[in-house]
């Protein structure tokens, strides 16, 4: 009976945690061995009563269980959270909270289509579920660039709950991506009117606002920051915002102090794994040093296409957004923004060691081309994910029709711009420490030099500083490389109305700015110890 008692104790724990299926299995296991065990019989009866009652009166699991799921995702265990949530869904099939959780977890795993499906299910179950409308709007804004659809969702959330500050803030983000700065400022102001302590609003507002000396918003942020019970994430938001505010009013020392503190707090959330980066780049390099199969005349199984993907690569903050805005101003080009598609495609084929087979190249080609075909019917489509610099070789091996535009910017200007910018995605974790930024820039330079040595004629090198000083000449060379006829709209890129979801969304709606690469010089005394390692780059 001792083994039965152990099973019954486990069953009771499962019951306590609302893990009904697991409890039921254990009760039945006991009854298989001891058919007259009253405790197991009572447990099954109680379980049946509880489940029936739950279906009738409780559509949602206990809040503590839902919180556990979100805690798992916050600790980068979304796969585990999803597995637990699916078990809960058996007991709570009409749970809007679980569907909303699925959406959040799928976003963390970059499974955006599944996230959208989950948010929609949550709203079907609970039509006044404000958080689901808000989360779906964020998804459309950040990962699909469908800002008009997102704004409609934020407006719906606000209609349901007029004092819901996050939707005012996120509407402001979407409006700024559309280039509607005034409407974005008004939305941020409304967010702060509803919730003056919403630090995420200050962070986003600072990106589009020009602060002036004695600006009352600076004092408000300082007062908030002085609170001893303020969460680290809120401190981080305020530090990035204050760094920008003090930069605007030319108080460089204060600005640098707050940028450093904001990055220190962000670094506590996501840490750069240099060893993992080095290992990945070694595998890629060795593959192409040893040689990869050539695709000649598209062997059987390789998707034929009229598509010409245009990959715009480089470091973050190197000018890739500007170049995409120029190229997408052409009537034959669709600007798709930063796509995770190629990185996910490479991951899907299981390429983890040196060497690429014809079958892997075929899979990469077909998966990527199918993906971009779903995004746009245009033949020319840009993919402005800077991180694709590591995949230049696989891109050209699998999709020889592709065009590669490498945008290179002054190393110091680029590294400083990376450091002072808040990146919401975890993929740019190197950005939060100046030594890591410099190390990553050097790795990036080594990799792009490697590709240039292998593909000297296929990669178009575009110098950001040359583009800003010789706009027409460099733009004509670029359009010629892409095989497109000249259109004057490419010089008037600032009139392009497409949504841009990067930090440069405001800059690229203005005429060419020539001196941004000098901005780091204001901070030279603080940066010299770090930037010495960039000598010669």
How are the secondary structure elements laid out?
Elements: H1 2-16, H2 20-33, H3 38-57, H4 63-74, H5 78-91, H6 96-108, H7 112-125, H8 130-144, H9 147-160, H10 165-177, H11 181-194, H12 199-208, H13 216-225, H14 232-248, H15 252-267, H16 274-290, E1 308-313, H17 320-328, E2 333-335, H18 341-348, H19 358-375, E3 380-383, H20 392-398, E4 403-408, H21 411-420, H22 434-454, E5 459-463, H23 464-469, H24 471-481, H25 524-531
Parallel strand pairs: 1-3, 1-4, 2-3, 4-5
Task: Describe what this molecule looks like in 3D.
There is one protein chain. This protein has 537 residues and is mostly helical. Among the domains are: 56 residues; 238 residues, P-loop containing nucleotide triphosphate hydrolases (Rossmann fold, 3-Layer(aba) Sandwich). 61% of the residues lie in helices and 4% in strands. It contains 25 helices and five strands. The protein has a five-stranded parallel sheet with strand order 2-3-1-4-5, sandwiched between helices. 41% of the residues are buried. About 2% of the residues have low confidence.
CATH topology of one domain: Rossmann fold
- Which outline best applies? globular
Biggest pleated sheet:
5 strands, parallel
Judging by the overall fold, what is the CATH architecture of one domain?
Answer: 3-Layer(aba) Sandwich
Distance between the termini: 75 Å
Which ranges are low-confidence, i.e. pLDDT below 50, for 5 or more consecutive residues? 51-57, 501-506
Please write the string of helix (H) and strand (E) elements.
HHHHHHHHHHHHHHHHEHEHHEHEHHEHHH
Give average pLDDT, whole number. 89
CATH class of one domain: Alpha Beta
Helix-residue proportion: 55-70%
Taking all Cα atoms into account, the compactness measure Rg is: 27 Å
Strand order of the largest sheet: 2-3-1-4-5
Q: Give the structural class.
A: mainly alpha
Annotation, overall tally of beta strands: 5
What is the fourth-level CATH superfamily of one domain?
A: P-loop containing nucleotide triphosphate hydrolases
Count of helical regions: 25
Tell me the fraction of residues in β-strands, as a range: under 5%
